[in-house]
Known about the structure:
Blueprint: E1 2-4, E2 6-9, E3 12-15, E4 21-25, E5 32-37, H1 41-58, H2 63-79, H3 81-92, H4 96-116, E6 123-126, E7 129-135, E8 138-142, H5 148-162, E9 166-169, H6 175-188, E10 195-197, H7 202-211, E11 215-221, H8 224-236, E12 240-244, E13 250-253, H9 259-271, E14 283-287, H10 291-304, H11 323-338, E15 342-345, E16 363-366, H12 373-376, E17 383-389, H13 392-400, E18 407-411, H14 415-422, E19 429-432, E20 453-454, H15 459-464, E21 467-473
Parallel strand pairs: 1-5, 8-9, 8-11, 9-10, 11-12, 13-14, 13-18, 14-17, 16-17, 18-19
Antiparallel strand pairs: 2-3, 4-5, 6-7, 7-21, 12-20, 15-16
Helix pairs in contact: 1-7, 2-4, 2-6, 3-4, 3-6, 4-5, 9-10
The structure holds nicotinamide-adenine-dinucleotide.
Amino acid sequence: MEQITSHYINGRFVPSHGQEVFDLVSPTTREVVGQVTLGDERDTRDAVRAAKEAFASFSRSPLGERRDYLQRLHDAVTARTREHCEAMRVEYGAPPQRAAATVARAAKSFLNAREVIDDVAFTRAFGDVQVLLKPVGVAGLITPWNSNILMICHKVASAIAAGCTVVVKPSELSSMQAQVLVECFDDAGLPPGVVNVVHGRGEVVGEELGTNPDVAKISFTGSTAVGKKLMRNAAETMKRVTLELGGKSAHIVLEDADLNRAIPFALSAAFMNSGQACVAGSRLLVPESRLAEVEEALRTRVAELAVGDPLDPRTAIGPMVTEKQYERVQGYIRAGVEEGAEILIGGEGRPQGLESGFFVKPTVFVGVRNDMTIAREEIFGPVLSVISYATEDEAVAIANDTDYGLFAYVTTADPEHGRRLATRLEAGGVMVNELFDFYDHPHAPIGGFKQSGFGREFGVEGIGEYLGTQSVYSR
Ligand code: NAD
């Protein structure tokens, strides 16, 4: 059983000062597969101090040097692909294709930042004035348990490109996955203190990062509730914050849609990462005229989805990450039924033969109204709500009638129409007709509107989140 007892501080693996031991449980078998000793405020302060010391020189490092570090980080992450996949499978229950793709994307984050860095206008001149972009200082990077290495890598990549040093606090539920990454950071041979990682609880390590006066910037990906708390904490020392929060994204299927395309797209968007994705298209908006066809197609396709062991290459949907998450999804399925929605396929309980892990049945609700709990709250599991609409205006109104604004999807036979419709949607990103891979589009910033947060990751804007502006007047 894996034991993680150290943090990565100032280029060394340092034994944890915090002494709480946390069990890491396999969601597939419910066995304890590892243990992590969680850090405390002192471990966090040590990491912040190391990052602050390193910032003095790293913030002034030439761009060529940072490009070289980004390349080395890419190579180091790629070199351990097998270990990353194994950790994701054992600790998280990631379906196999998802795990392999996740590692490739995580590694690519560094090359993407390396590419985008060339478009950042670090220096501009306007007559007697030079406008400079400067790294803001130590960045605290706080990440969730879903897609752990992706979140850490793209945040670290942008911070390094900008010239910031970082303290990463991964979700304690992802410690094994994070630990493989820490070893990659060490292999990459960056100057000590540039990247530090402290394992620990949000209320301990996360709170310390969020309030420590030497942390200039917080980049957070996680729930809206914690994001609000971090923002309140950050106000005290005027930290800059980037908040990548939850979502309840709508997928509008237009009248003219080809269902052979629309349904696989809808299910990929809704059930990606076993439904544990912030950008999940969890509300499917269908024209009344095509409702019967869509329901029929969904019933057939969902029945074909293989739920099961992440070791099995056919598995499309793995377990929920924890028992708590399993119970949460069950609670939402119950709420859907109680509020009058109808189960098309799936429902409460575990799929047959999968009683040992935190597996749920991929579930589709029909007859959903947009004011029902299952249409308003982020479920974070493979549960799709089908809502019908009469006109396109009504579809837009339903799509926008949500507290969230992270993502949206449109399916239509007329892509130009889809693009026009996209501009009416209150969402940070819209995908028309297919699932695009963010990591193939490094110049496109991603992030939310409304309670999905603010600030952007990826692109010039993503690196810009770690930069402040200085104007120098001289003659
Ligand atoms: P969470 O908010 O519970 O935890 C996220 C991180 O915050 C963890 O590392 C946790 O330890 C830490 N944390 C908890 N309390 C804290 C505090 N008081 N101060 C500082 N840090 C604290 O989220 P989760 O359950 O790990 O992840 C799922 C959520 O993340 C979902 O809501 C999902 O939508 C969201 N998410 C958003 C994006 C995005 O890009 N918008 C991507 C992935 C996940």
